[in-house]
Design brief:
Layout: H1 9-26, H2 36-46, H3 53-64, H4 72-90, E1 100-101, E2 104-105, H5 107-111, H6 113-132, H7 141-155, H8 160-169, H9 177-203, H10 207-234, H11 237-240, H12 246-249, H13 255-259, H14 261-280, H15 287-298
Antiparallel strand pairs: 1-2
The protein binds geranylgeranyl diphosphate (GRG).
Length: 301
């Protein structure tokens, strides 16, 4: 009998990332028409790569609750479009003024400031057009409607954009623990909450499970952003695909400036462990999802 080679966790992660990559491409707009430049700028940003963590968390949460329909796919593409639109705007000269992202020139450097603003706007809007496509391929239109509401709420002024507002206002100013917590929960946490909640909602999870999923995702968001701060200080441009030392350059208060490196590292571990514990308490099992969250503690980019 032939020995069956066991697939490692890293190989499984790589295969899933590639599959998501291919899926997202099928939802991208066609580069034609008089407005072609904006489509090219949008596609340039989305196709630059990235870990595809948000669509992956969404799909894995959907599977955890037994979801098996096609309505998850447009939402997976939509969340990555929204995330990418936020990166495009975050890199602009009026925000972090960064020239590299995901291993290539940022959208504003490649296409100009004006086109990068429009590309961010276009991607954000196209994400909702894409997500709404799920209505035509689902047995649960009411779940799709609720998922769109979550997507909008977690992106907007009470979500990611609200967090970014305080982040920008407080640049070059000291932030209190409470303000920093607000910024991290919204700027970074809200989209991760949307990702996992949408997975749960589309799969038909009960209300208590949706609430617990939101809580677990908020912990993931916090751990993820603290790790992002740590990497900004300790990693290299080659590994991250974006400049290191960006927070210091922009004189930003971060978790690391408030708590130091050692405490930050141990808090990432503690918060991620708590997220895993909450997820383990939910009905259903998904070992890959737990490993994915575990990976955030040791991630290098
Ligand atoms: C246009 C929708 C829109 C929003 C503008 C600029 C802005 C408001 C929000 C910025 C939010 C932001 C960039 C938060 C940081 C979150 C974060 C840690 C991003 C890095 O995510 P990774 O590591 O990146 O998943 P990859 O490249 O792997 O996808």
């Amino acid at each position: 009998m032939k020995a069956v080679k066991k697939v490692t966790w890293k190989e499984e992660l790589a295969a899933k990332t590639l599959r998501i990559e291919e899926l997202i491409k099928t939802y991208l707009p066609k580069e034609k028409g008089f407005q072609k430049t904006i489509v090219q700028a949008s596609n340039y940003s989305v196709c630059a790569g990235g870990k595809r963590l948000r669509p992956m968390l969404m799909e894995e949460t959907y599977r955890l609750f037994g979801g098996d329909g096609p309505e998850i796919f447009p939402f997976m593409a939509a969340i990555e479009m929204i995330h990418t639109s936020s990166l495009v705007h975050d890199d602009l000269p009026c925000m972090d003024n960064d020239e590299y992202r995901r291993g290539r020139k940022t959208t504003w450097v490649e296409f100009g400031y004006d086109m990068a603003v429009l590309a961010g706007d276009a991607l954000l809007t196209f994400a909702f057009e894409t997500a709404a496509g799920a209505f035509s391929d689902t047995r649960h239109p009411e779940r799709v409607g609720r998922a769109i509401q979550i997507l909008a709420g977690k992106t907007g002024m009470y979500g990611m954009i609200g967090g970014q507002t305080v982040d920008v206002e407080m640049t070059e100013k000291p932030m209190t623990e409470e303000q920093l917590d607000f910024v991290y929960r919204l700027k970074t946490g809200a989209l991760l909450e949307a990702s996992m909640m949408i997975g749960a909602v589309l799969a038909g999870a009960d209300e208590e499970s949706i609430k617990q999923t939101e809580y677990a995702a908020s912990l993931v968001g916090m751990a993820f952003q603290i790790q992002d701060d740590i990497l900004d200080l300790t990693s290299t441009t080659e590994i991250l695909g974006k400049p290191v030392g960006s927070d210091e350059k922009n004189q930003k208060t971060t978790y690391v400036t408030l708590h130091g490196l050692e405490q930050s590292r141990s808090d990432v571990e503690k918060i991620s462990r708590k997220a895993i514990e909450v997820l383990k308490g939910l009905p259903g099992e998904n070992e890959f999802l737990l490993q994915l969250i575990q990976m955030l503690i040791t991630r290098e980019k």
